[in-house]
Amino acid sequence: MIARGPERDDLPGGAAALPWGEGRKAFQAKAYELCARDDVGRVCDIGGGANPIIASRDVHGLGVEYTLLDVSETELAKAPQEMRRYVADIAAPGFASPQLFDLVISRTVLEHVADPAQFHRNVFAMLRPGGYALHLYPTLYALPFVVNRLLPEFGVRQLLLVAQPFRTADGQHGKFPALYRWCRGPTRRQLRHLERVGYEIIVYRPLYGHDYYKRVGALAYLEQLKTRALLRHPVPWLTSYAYVVLRRPD
């Protein structure tokens, strides 16, 4: 079952904050937890072509029908061959879902979306009544993402290759332009955005810290100090990442 008690404490102030590393694992565990629900049979993974959130080896054991949806045929071509695939732009006004789903999930997709309101409306329309959506995304105003937003794309790519050399265009973790619209911590404005679409907000988990400075010792140490302070005194405007569980009301 979805926890409706302690995890609601992070609305809107962030009492249930986690460090990024633990939060990433918590998001993954939440995805598996939702897939294992008795009322979840059809799952759509948005943008998961190269890196599905649920491993292909686990899909059969969970007993779900798992569909990968991506705007890029190139990214979908990197997916495990046995997974269902659907090429479409989830943020397009004319988007039509191939079917209704019990669960829609995404990981680090929302920051690339130019029209997040349309994205969330389209996901809402994909869900059967009572269905769930789960999204993980980086947030402003963490410094690496502010830099990513402001610098020209070529400059950002060069910096990223220094911090994370594995982020090559032809690999499994490519770099794509990011806009960070509606990518914030659990601020009141952010919550209103989602509620106006029609969602019930089940969980809004703020995450602090990141690993972009791990190759620069002094900066990494300062980032750890900042993260510890924010975990003790959470500030929703200073999250680095967040994940949210939304529900389409019956």
Give the ordered list of helices and strands: EHEHEHEEHEHHHEHE
Q: What's the CATH C level?
A: Alpha Beta
CATH H-level name... which superfamily?
A: Vaccinia Virus protein VP39
Low-confidence stretches: 1-10, 160-164, 166-175
What's the story with the biggest beta sheet? 8 strands, mixed
β-sheet strand percentage: 15-25%
Shape: globular
Our count of domains comes out at: 1
In terms of structural class, how would the helical and strand content be classed?
Answer: alpha/beta
- End-to-end Cα distance: 17 Å
CATH T-level topology: Rossmann fold
Mean pLDDT: 86
Count of alpha/pi helices: 8
- Count of strand segments: 8
Within the largest sheet, what's the order of strands?
1-7-8-6-5-2-3-4
Radius of gyration: 18 Å
CATH architecture: 3-Layer(aba) Sandwich
Helix content: 25-40%
